[in-house]
Amino acid sequence: MTLFEAHIDAIENAAKAALWVCFIATFVLLLTGHVNMSMAIVIAVVWISRATLYHIKETRARWDDKAAEEGELRREQRHANRERELLLQIRRLQRPEGRGDGSSVGGP
């Protein structure tokens, strides 16, 4: 697990906060007429935040897909184990049980 994946919730919260703060700062800078280097920095932070949020979304989708696959494999394994157990029970029930004297159950 990477550092990004280990701290994905904190990174997501920080990226959302940065996105909204910079989104508001963009309008403030536009309304006050300060379109300069500060505006370029704010726009860069907005795009980086959006890219980070997109990456987080993709990572979580990959985790969900992996969890679904693992769940399906576990279900298939449980089903196969259950089938195997039932076959063993059927074989045990069909096997004649000896009484120690060589006769079988249901004999004369």
Describe the structure.
With 108 residues, this protein is mainly α. It is built from three helices and no strands. The protein is rod-shaped, with a radius of gyration of 32 Å. The model has no long low-confidence stretch (mean pLDDT 87).
- Low-pLDDT segments: none
Overall pLDDT score: 87
Tell me the radius of gyration.
32 Å
**What profile does the largest beta sheet have?**
none
Terminal residue distance? 69 Å
Proportion of strand residues: under 5%
Tell how many strands the DSSP assignment holds. Answer: 0
Query: What general outline do the C-alpha atoms trace?
Result: rod-shaped
Order of helices and strands: HHH
Helices, by number, come to: 3
Question: Helix- and strand-based class?
Answer: mainly alpha
User: What is the share of helical residues?
Assistant: over 70%
Characteristics:
108 residues, 81% helix, mainly alpha
Record the SSE blueprint.
Elements lengths: L2 H4 L1 H25 L4 H58 L14
Helix pairs in contact: 2-3
Question: What's this entry about, in short?
Answer:
This protein is mainly alpha-helical. It is built from three helices and no strands.
